[in-house]
């Protein structure tokens, strides 16, 4: 009689019966279970007599040969039980020789513990109930054999039970959704598993787009992103030209960023080119749309005139200061060649100035262009 029944008072009810009546029921049923166990072992023994176990390489074949199945099927039909019952009873009987069968232990427990591969371990296990228990139960037998229990107790058993129930993808999806709504549960998930979960959940572009802004608004999260990944994110987010322009403007207002950016030759060239183009666009827009444009053009022409006169005056003044210094100095051949080349460019430039002043034409022909660029012979 189980300890929990022995300690129960008569005043307590179990289900719809008193504790004493429950104890009587258990005692009667145990006798019937023991009888049923003997019957099942008898069926198994007779089935073994009809068809002994066929072993190959010290291992039973999982599927009985056709002739064995035919014989057992006929036996099952002749005694009025299922083929599966005869098959299971035969296998269980083969695992438990008569001298190792334990009275008072159900056939069900014998069948479960029959899964222990090592014979000595198997025979010892059934003779030794679990610690703190007076007898074997099917769940305790399943624990000992490493199988799933019906009523999970430990966290690992509960996890295994959930995995079994969630083999169907639809069930798994529903359970996962419910669990992820519980902050205390999510808090215990390992970081690497959270990463994988987020990656899987955000495979759909719309979901990823909704999640990404929330994540990017968290400075502590962004701070942990690798530099190369940050660069990639910025590149992706600034593919739109209007976004790129707004971001770049903001970044260039930061002195350190602007200084480092201008260290890149390509970036500096593009900025300079943009400034020139921007100035040209502004000038063209002004000349096309502003009523002051004619007056400004007149002033521009005056400024250009003054600039030209100033350039000529500067050249004459510089030559007046420099040439007297050549007195009594004999230049070398290479030096004379270099001076003559520059004088030729100056002479060509003066001719160009006279033509522009007299005719208004400022076009430069090929020969003059080569001279001005120092490519003349």
Provide structural commentary:
With about 375 residues, the protein is mainly α. The chain has 4 domains: about 5-150, no CATH class; about 150-190, no CATH class; about 240-290; about 300-370, no CATH class. Helix content is about 70%, strand content about 0%. The chain is built from 20 helices and 4 strands. The strands form 2 sheets. The chain has a two-stranded antiparallel sheet. A hairpin with a 2-residue loop joins strand 3 and strand 4 (about 60). The longest helix has about 30 residues, at about 20-50. The radius of gyration is 50 Å and the shape is rod-shaped. Residues about 1-5 and about 55-60 have low confidence and may be disordered.
Task: Map the helices and strands.
Blueprint: H1 3-6, E1 13-14, E2 17-18, H2 19-50, E3 55-56, E4 59-60, H3 66-79, H4 83-95, H5 107-113, H6 119-126, H7 138-145, H8 155-165, H9 169-180, H10 183-187, H11 191-201, H12 205-216, H13 219-223, H14 227-237, H15 241-252, H16 255-261, H17 265-289, H18 293-322, H19 333-359, H20 366-372
Antiparallel strand pairs: 1-2, 3-4
Helix pairs in contact: 2-4, 3-4, 5-7
């Amino acid at each position: 009689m189980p300890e929990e029944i022995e300690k129960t008072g008569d005043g307590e009810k179990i289900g719809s019966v008193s504790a004493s009546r429950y104890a009587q029921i258990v005692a009667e049923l145990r006798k019937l279970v023991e009888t049923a166990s003997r019957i099942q072992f008898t069926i198994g023994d007779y089935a073994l007599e009809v068809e002994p176990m066929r072993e190959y390489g010290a291992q039973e074949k999982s599927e009985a040969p056709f002739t064995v199945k035919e014989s057992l099927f006929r036996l099952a039909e002749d005694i009025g039980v299922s083929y599966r019952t005869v098959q299971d009873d035969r296998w269980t009987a083969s695992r438990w020789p008569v001298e190792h069968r334990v009275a008072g232990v159900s056939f069900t427990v014998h069948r479960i513990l029959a899964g222990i591969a090592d014979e000595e371990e198997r025979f010892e296990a059934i003779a030794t109930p679990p610690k703190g228990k007076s007898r074997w139960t099917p769940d305790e037998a399943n624990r000992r054999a490493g199988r799933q229990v019906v009523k999970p107790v430990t966290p690992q058993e509960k996890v295994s039970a959930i995995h079994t129930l969630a083999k169907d993808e639809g069930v798994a999806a529903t359970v996962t959704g419910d669990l992820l709504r519980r902050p205390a549960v999510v808090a215990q998930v390992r970081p690497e598993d959270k990463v994988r979960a987020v990656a899987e959940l955000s495979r759909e572009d719309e979901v990823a787009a909704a999640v990404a802004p929330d994540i990017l608004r968290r400075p502590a999260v962004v701070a942990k992103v690798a530099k190369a990944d940050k660069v990639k994110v910025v590149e992706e987010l600034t593919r739109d030209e209007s976004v790129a322009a707004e971001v770049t403007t903001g970044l260039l207002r930061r002195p350190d960023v602007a200084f480092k950016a201008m260290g890149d030759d390509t970036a500096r060239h593009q900025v300079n080119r943009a400034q020139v183009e921007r100035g040209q666009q502004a000038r063209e827009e002004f000349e096309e749309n502003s009523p002051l444009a004619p007056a400004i053009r007149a002033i521009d022409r005056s400024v250009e005139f003054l600039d030209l006169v100033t350039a000529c005056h500067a050249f004459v003044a510089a030559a007046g200061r420099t040439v007297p210094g050549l007195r009594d100095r004999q230049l070398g051949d290479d030096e004379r060649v270099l001076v003559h080349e520059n004088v030729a460019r100056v002479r060509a430039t003066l001719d160009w100035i006279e033509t522009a002043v007299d005719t208004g034409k400022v076009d430069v022909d090929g020969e003059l262009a080569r001279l001005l660029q120092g490519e003349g012979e």
